[in-house]
Design a protein that fits this description.
homodimer; 388 residues; alpha/beta; Aspartate Aminotransferase, domain 1; 2 domains; three-stranded antiparallel β-sheet; 13 helices; globular
Chain lengths: 388, 388
């Protein structure tokens, strides 16, 4: 028995996506900038992909820029807009629980003289809209609030956040890496100026991302060179990758609703199953305002890494936080923002479900966890006698 | 009959490379940062690829950073080193015929207060080492000279250029996008501090590149985020792409010598065939110090774009310059640097040969070109009577 529940860290490419990509590796391999039939074919392929991504997020084709990953989209969006419009003000407001790339781009901007202000979240991990309203002022050039957090699953009030930003003429960016394809996002109607998208999070290939850029908005390019992607992203286009992201977006449009319901069912079965059986286990994040595929559960007196290694031996793959920051072995800044203590944040597991998970997998995981937790607790000097 | 001779703009992925990539799309799809078996498998795969790229360029594995393309490698290398070591001086020396990404990164650095100095080339397109020696001084922080030019094929005196840079304690970068896999490059013995590599130019997938970074050298990262690639290139790794680049490098090591001889033969057959038959046609670049796969031929009284469209209808794909700047429709800055006039630069064709070309293709192209050139010349008011 196996159960991969780390779709937040990495997703398999959908076989239909891979099929769509295949012709562009060996046969139709042209450079979209080439002035001949092979080039035109490649250009046509990336334009179709652009329309497909467009359709997922309620944009126009001219508003989508392909990049190499969500991290690059965040770099282009946040640094690109902040520097381009720096005359509007020096303040940049982001939430405490943004992806590490957004946090670290903020640090770089603060070295360049910008003032980075962190908007707090409540204990369920939802950005406090009132406090955000107090932090955004007329000196604010950009506000960046993620659409949903990939680690604790909380869905953020981004429509309200965009309104707050716009009431002060600030630009609004949302990192929709974890949310896109899971919950409906309509860039135009929801008031986004910039939105980050990741291909792999849609079951597309790794090495591709996109940035929605509202018509009329300008950016300082991040990747400098031959002026591809309307001058915003230089470098020869990754044609098979872009084709794959387009196909993945296209599939997601049709599957999102039914798959969201299915995953919500599995998620709740998993949460109830674990919390009912394991003493001193708690759900991190919000009970209902969370992504259909995300469960984040805290176990007292256990180290997350030890849990992960033990569960891996049972064929269960999970994460103890974002894979993006796993290498640091620091406790998650997201869990710390909820007010959790260092040791509490360390004892958490992130379950991110996906297309190949079934009820059987969930039951297997629910059966496996209590034993693993008990064994690890028995080894810890901190565990109270009644839990041994 | 078909003849694709635009390998400089885009190469098909080698089928063996695609085979090597395939397991990493759907099955072994882990995130190398994940702390479980799927993650370890992905990490192992990219480390093998790192060793393979290492072997192609005489480096150590710790000296290779994977990026999303050669343009990104150039951004990371040139901006990253120049800004990191800015205290060493404000001067950056590049050649006049660098890739557009290097030229444009230079422009951006000049806006940031650096002094960008262009080293000239002679009329064959070889960097003038004496003049380079005069331009590099103790105020120079970085020298960037490409290993070979992809458009005119000239192989540059980079060992000498590196020595000049080092004699002033400047950092030496070479863009080896067009050269790697065609001519031997040994980073350690040839004195490179930084070297840009492209996957697709090795018959690897698009959307991947690498940067050789000499041990001990530090860079300001270009892509900010979760700290992947030793902190130098954030963003979840493109595992299938990296595996593909590794495999492509591995194949290239074994094939380079024989394939170089084969392509040199085809190249010379092509050059002689065209020059012998078409009046007022000339070879751009150096007659012998050129890449095995490159021929660049100038036809008086003809527009390159018109030639390309006409030849495309015969199934022959070529370029009139670098695809990277084709969109601008400006005459090539490379040909202008050779001293060619605007109209001369416009009437040039770039032939870049590759693995699927055979003697038949060359003969087909040699047979096709005279007729096309004659027809276009007949339509031009500038053509002298004797050529009509």
């Amino acid at each position: 028995m196996k159960a991969y529940m780390d779709y937040g860290a990495s997703r398999p490419v959908d076989p239909a996506v891979l099929d769509a990509m295949m012709p562009y590796f060996c046969d139709s391999h042209g450079n979209p900038s080439s002035f001949h039939s092979h080039g035109f074919e490649a250009l046509k392929a990336i334009n179709i992909a652009r329309e497909q991504v467009t359709a997922l997020v309620g944009a126009e084709a001219s508003e989508i820029v392909f990049t190499s990953c969500a991290t690059e989209s965040n770099n282009l969006a946040i640094a690109g807009a902040t520097i381009r419009y720096r005359k509007r003000g020096k303040r940049v407001v982001i939430s405490e629980i943004e992806h590490i790339s957004v946090i670290n781009i903020g640090k770089e901007l603060s070295r360049q003289g910008f003032e980075i202000v962190m908007a707090p979240v409540d204990e369920t991990g939802i950005v406090d809209v009132d406090k955000l309203g107090e932090l955004v002022n007329d000196e604010t050039v950009l506000v960046s609030i993620m659409a949903a957090n990939g680690e604790i699953g909380t869905i953020q009030p981004i429509k309200e956040a965009a309104e707050i930003a716009h009431s002060h003429e600030a630009i609004f960016h949302t990192d929709a890496t974890a949310a896109a394809g899971q919950i409906p996002l309509e860039a135009a109607t929801m008031g986004f100026d910039l939105m980050t998208l990741s291909s792999n999070d849609l079951y597309g290939p790794k090495g591709v991302g996109a940035l929605y850029l509202r018509k009329g908005l300008r950016l300082k390019p991040h990747m400098i060179g031959g002026g591809q992607e309307g001058g915003l992203r230089s470098g020869s286009e990754n044609v098979p990758g872009i084709v794959g992201m387009g196909k993945a977006a296209d599939l997601m449009i049709r599957r999102m609703e039914a798959e969201g319901e299915r995953l919500t069912g599995l998620r709740d079965r998993l949460i109830r199953g674990v919390l009912d059986v394991v003493p001193e286990s708690y759900l991190n994040g919000h009970p209902t305002k969370r992504l259909p595929n995300n469960a984040n559960i805290r176990f007292s007196y256990v180290e997350g890494e030890a849990l992960i290694i033990s569960l891996d031996q049972l064929g269960i793959q999970l994460s103890s936080g974002s894979a993006c920051v796993a290498k640091t072995l620091e406790p998650s800044h997201v869990l710390r923002a909820l007010g959790l203590k260092h040791e509490e944040a360390h004892g958490s597991l992130v379950f991110t479900l996906g297309k190949d998970n079934r009820g059987d997998d969930v039951d297997y995981v629910v059966r496996g966890i209590p034993d693993v937790v008990s064994k690890l607790r028995a080894m810890s000097p901190l565990t109270p006698p009644e839990l041994r």
